[in-house]
Structure formats: C-alpha cells, structure tokens
Amino acid sequence: MSATPSVPRSEGFTPTGTIASHGDRRRVVFATVVGTTVEWYDFFLYASAAGLVFGALFFEPAGKEFGQILSFLTVGISFLFRPLGAFLAGHLGDRYGRRLVLMLTLILMGVATTLVGLLPTYAAIGIAAPILLVFLRILQGISAGGEWGGAVLMAVEHAPKNKRSLFGASPQLGVPLGLLLASGMLGLMALIAPGDAFLEWGWRVPFLLSFVLIIIGYYVRRKVEESPVFLELAERKEKSRMPIVQLFRKHALLVIIAAFVFAGNNAAGYMTTGGYIQRYSTDPEGPVGLATADVLGAVTISAVSWLVFTWLAGWIGDKIGRRNTYIIGWVLQLVGVIALFPLVNTGSIVLLALGLVILTAGLGFTYGPQAALYAELFPASIRFSGVSISYAIGAILGGAFAPTIATALVQATGTTTSVTWYLVGMTLLGLIATLLLRDRSGIPLGPDHEEEQAKSPIYGVSHA
C-alpha cells in the first residue's frame, strides 16, 4: 500500500498530486453535460412519445383510455429496473471506476433508443410489438439507473471544494437539455410531418437520431480522466469488495431519506418529462385541446427556464449551502404545482407555457444542488453505490408512475385538482426529508477522511 499523500488529492488534485488545470475541469464539465444530455434525450423522447403516439400505435386493442394508461405504464416500468442499473453500476463504479460505467450506460441507452425507432407497430406484428417496446424501455431504465451516479461523481470529485455544487449542476443540466432536445425534435417533426404522417413515420426520426448522438457522446467521454477520488482509492487498495452490502448495513436509513428528497422533485418534474402534460393538453376530446406542435414548443421553452434555474441553484448552493438552497426550492415548487393546472386548463398556450416556466423554478432549485448534496452524504469507498441507489429509489417513489397516477386520478375524479394535491403531497415529502439532513457542504471527499464521512448526516443520529 502506498504512503498517505501529504495533500488530499481529491480536493481538486490529480492522481500525481498536482492541481488539476482549468482545462482538465472544463473537459470534465463538458463531457458530463454532453453525455447526460444524450442519455436524457433518449429517456425523455420515449416518455414524450408515450404521451403522444405509443398508446395508438402499440396498445390499440386496449382502447383509447386504457391504451393510454398502458402506454404511460411502460414509462413507469423502466423505473423498476433503475435499481438494477444502480446496483450494477454502483458495484462496477466503486470497484472499477466511474469512467467505465459512463461508457457502458451511454452505449446501452443509445442502442435501445435507436431500436425503438425501428420497431414495427401492433398493426404490423401484433402482441410482439408492445412486448419488444417494453423490453427496450427496460434497457433504458437500467442505463438511466447507472448513468446518473457516475456522471455526478465525475463532476463533483473533480471540482474544487468551494465549487462542488456548481460543478455538480453540470450533469444536472443534461435533464433540461435532454428535454429541450427531445421536445424540440418532436415539435419539429410534428411541423414537418403533421397529422397522420407524424403517426406513420415522423415520430421515428428523433429516435433514429440517437445513433448519431451516441457516437458524439462516446467520443467526448472517452477523453475524460478517471475521478481522482477513485484513483486514490485504487492506489491505496481501499476499494470496498462488497460496496452495496456495506451501504445497506451501515447507511440504509440515509439511503431512504435521500431517496425521498429526490422523489419530491421527480414527481413534479415528470408532469412534463413523463409526457403527461403533453398528452393531457393535446387530447382533442379533452378540456384543453391544443395543437401538438404548440404544446411541444411550450415544453421546449420551459426546458430552457429549467436549465437556467438548475444552473443558478448550483451556483447558489456554493454560497448558502445545499440544504438552504433546497428549502428555497421546495417553496418555489409548491407555488409551481399549485399554479400549474389552473393555468393549463385555461386553454391558452401562453398561460400553459407560463405555468410550466413557474414550475421549473422550483424544479431547478431542488435539482441543481442534488449532485453535491448526495456526494457529500456518503463515504468515498461506497459513494457510487450510495448516490446511484438513492437516486434510483427516489425515481421509483417519485416519477416512475406519476403520469399513470395523474391519468388515473383525473379519470376517477374528473378534475385535475386531485393531481395538484398529489403533487403538493410529494413536494412536502421532499421538504421534510431535506429538513432531516444536516448540511455537509465542503466536507472532504477523499479516502483520508472516511471516518468523518461515515458520521451520520441525519439529525438525531450520531453515527451510521
């Protein structure tokens, strides 16, 4: 085992002990933004298509209403496989490195998405069509479950201590950028191939574009160096042999609380990223009945505002702490979820866009600091497993079935008020979970400080 270095390398230092250059850090930020944008473009493209076309094309025999519920269920099913992706990626990431996992998840997501674009419909091959669609969505879920942890740790563990929240916001930007790209491409195709042409072939083009994006993302990611924290662990031979076992034996309660933090954000976010607003507001037999291209344009605008608020929250998180930034975010999100459906139900595309923009203020502030918050919660040797599994469980509890729940609530009650109360409840759940956690902004991340990192960040619990 090598001697302990005199300077913690993980605080902005390279494996050779020299300070990482601004160029190195810029490459890391750029690579995480590009890679996560491609990942979430693929993931959200499917969710948007589930709201717009999959019900009619793959679940036609089930009828319009039940077919749409089945379509949204395929969005949620993928979340059930996120923990599998998180477990696999957590083990590989803590044992073999963050960089390897990022390459594997990117390829898996891109292949699955491209194949969706080539998939025959129910009219062509019958029941095999929805079965294959669900299988490809499961592959997307496994990839998404493994992607996030690696991306955020590459960003945060390369960051200087006083800029972790800002650096950690870079992979978070991939979510609004992915939504922006997915909605923009679908909106463009809705204009180029309107009506029946969109159902026949227009929706496929954005899926096939994924093949090109995956090549770009792979090229960018392979240029990035491994995380300095992992390299230090590998050099010292201090990698955990069974990181997932260690995680749940010592930090199970922390994983659940961290998952609730994300669940509060994810449920509200999946009103658009899960395709619900798109479907609800474009249904010709529904109360709103807006044009598909117009709604996709409004979602695209909201993705831009989400991007801005996420970056702003990352910056503010380094100034006032992750916890305080989150508390501001929950208040903003509460306002957003209360205002959303009253504005959407006016039938005005301008007010719909306004409602989505208001919502994104809270979404950005409860998402921008998440990478730094999560990274600072867990010890170095099991950090990949901790952040990945917390994120995956939070996604199941929050966004997995949010569109399905919203659809069922409206069908049962005849009003979107029930959906509003559901989103209010999830927002308050996230707020409570946040209040249970201490702010650990700036805690050392390297293996020199595992004892300090192992102290419980939960109020009222002194040690894991």
TrEMBL record:
Q: Which UniProt keywords apply?
A: Cell membrane, Membrane, Transmembrane, Transmembrane helix, Transport
Q: Which SUPFAM superfamilies match?
A: MFS general substrate transporter
Q: Where in the cell is it found?
A: Cell membrane
PROSITE patterns, sorted: MFS
Which Pfam families does this entry report, sorted A to Z? Answer: MFS_1
Q: Which GO terms describe its cellular component?
A: plasma membrane
Q: What is its main location?
A: membrane
Does Nucleotide-binding appear among the keywords?
Answer: no
Q: Which residues cross the membrane?
A: 43-63, 69-89, 101-125, 177-195, 201-220, 251-271, 291-313, 325-343, 349-368, 389-413, 419-437
Q: Where is the Major facilitator superfamily (MFS) profile domain?
A: 28-442
Topology with respect to the bilayer? Multi-pass membrane protein
Would the keyword ATP-binding turn up in this protein's UniProt record? no
CDD domains referenced in this protein's UniProt entry, alphabetically: MFS_ShiA_like
The terms under GO molecular function for this entry are:
transmembrane transporter activity
Annotated coiled-coil segments of the chain? none
Task: Look up the domain of life of the source.
Answer: Bacteria
Q: What is this protein called?
A: MHS family MFS transporter
Organism per entry: Microbacterium saccharophilum
Organism classification:
Bacteria, Bacillati, Actinomycetota, Actinomycetes, Micrococcales
